[in-house]
Design brief:
One of its GO terms (biological process) is protein retention in ER lumen. The protein is mostly helical and 212 residues long. Helix content is 71%, strand content 0%.
Length: 212
C-alpha cells in the first residue's frame, strides 16, 4: 500500500458513489451506459473470484466486496428499478467486439495458465476498454450531464493514479506487472480527450460535449 494506490482506490470509490447517488436521486439512469456497467460487473466478478479462496487483508476483502456489490447494484437500478429511463437506443455499442478479443488475449498472454490467473488477466484487459460504451454514448447524444462528467473524471483519475502507484512500486520495491501497466496506460489514454474537455469545459461551468 502507498499513497498513490490509496488515492486511486478512493477516487474509484468516489466514482461509484457519484454514479449511484446520481441514479438514486434523479430516479433515472439517463446518460449512463448500461453496456459499460455490464462490462465493469464482468471485470469485478472475474477478477475477485479469489475472494473465496485467498485472504490478503481486511482492506483488500472490503474493497472486493464493495466493487462486486456496487456493480451488481448498479445493474439492478439500471435494468430493473429504473429500466424505463434507460436509453437503449443510444447505448448501442457492440460489447462482444471488446469481450471476444479480451478473452483471446487473456488466453494467449498471461502470467500463468490457470483458471484464476487467466480470469484475472482477462479482467485487466477488459477494464482497460470497459469505458468505451460510455464514451460512445456521450458522443452519440452530444453531451453529458455535469454529474456524469464528474463520475467519468473520478473513474479516469483512479486509473491515472494507479500509474503513479506502479512507478512508486518499481522504484521502492523493484516490482512491476507489465500486463497491468500496459492495460492501465491504454485505459488512461482513452480518457485523455475527456480529461481535456472536463478541465476546459465542466470546471468552468459549461456542458461537456464530445465530438461525434
Amino acid at each position: 500500500m502507498n499513497i498513490f494506490r490509496l488515492a486511486g482506490d478512493l477516487s474509484h470509490l468516489l466514482a461509484i458513489i457519484i454514479l449511484l447517488l446520481k441514479i438514486w436521486k434523479t430516479r433515472s439512469c439517463a446518460g449512463i451506459s448500461g453496456k459499460s456497467q455490464i462490462l465493469f460487473a464482468i471485470v469485478y466478478l472475474s477478477r475477485y473470484l479469489d475472494l473465496f479462496t485467498t485472504y490478503i487483508s481486511l482492506y483488500n476483502t472490503f474493497m472486493k466486496v464493495v466493487f462486486i456489490g456496487s456493480s451488481l447494484g448498479t445493474l439492478y437500478l439500471m435494468y430493473i428499478k429504473f429500466r424505463a429511463t434507460y436509453d437503449h437506443n443510444h447505448d448501442s455499442f457492440r460489447i462482444e467486439f471488446l469481450l471476444v478479443p479480451c478473452v483471446i488475449l487473456a488466453l494467449l498472454i498471461n502470467h500463468d495458465f490457470t483458471v484464476l490467473e487467466v480470469l484475472w488477466t482477462f479482467s485487466i484487459y477488459l477494464e482497460s476498454v470497459a469505458i468505451l460504451p460510455q464514451l460512445f454514448l456521450v458522443s452519440k447524444t452530444g453531451e453529458a450531464e455535469s454529474i456524469t462528467s464528474h463520475y467519468l473524471f473520478a473513474l479516469g483519475s483512479y486509473r491515472a493514479l494507479y500509474i503513479f502507484n506502479w512507478i512508486y512500486r518499481y522504484a521502492a520495491e523493484s516490482h512491476y506487472d507489465l500486463i497491468a501497466i500496459v492495460a492501465g496506460i491504454v485505459q488512461t489514454i482513452l480518457y485523455c480527450d475527456f480529461f481535456y474537455l472536463y478541465i476546459t469545459k465542466v470546471l468552468k461551468g459549461k456542458k461537456l460535449q464530445l465530438p461525434a
